[in-house]
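Chapter review: from sequence to fold.
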Amino acid sequence: MKSVCVFCGSASGANPAYTTAARELGRELALRGLGLVYGGGRVGLMGELATASLAAGGKVLGVIPHALSAKEIALAECTELIVVNTMHERKALMADRSDAFVALPGGYGTCDELFEILTWAQLGIHRKPVGLLNVNGFFTPLLTWLDHITTEGLLKPKHRDLLLVADTVPELLDKLAAWRPSELVTKWVEPEER
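The token string follows.
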């Protein structure tokens, strides 16, 4: 694992713990020699994450669409900043340039990115670890929902297990580093028994 893609909010959120966690993750990635790949913005949790990583000597790749470069205010100080045309290009490039994925607190965009990358893992499009940092229980309702859809038979337990969860930055990065892919997914939907 050489680089970690982080999905997180372009807002800071109501709880200062989210900013603290973003800064800690940015620093820890740099201290472990792991490059950061992220959405390229200088505002909110994205900006805190990237600025902390750069301050600790880390390498930061920002990927931002033209349409968002003004709204999310692209972080020009990134080691490498790539401006793309669409959100689809952004997500594909971030996925291609990353060895693992982490979600921090965020809104619709963070959830979109997290679930797309989990779906790609479920379908066997990539074989990279995906985790989330459950800062102050932020993701607990989401995890409860994932357990519910698993119980309801809409998500297989092996696919539910694709999402690694931790409450602390070191624990999450250790889980990502230790993760090994299971067998290739060749058939992800089984025919229903009659």
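Two observations follow directly from the output. The radius of gyration is 16 Å. The longest strand covers residues 60-65.
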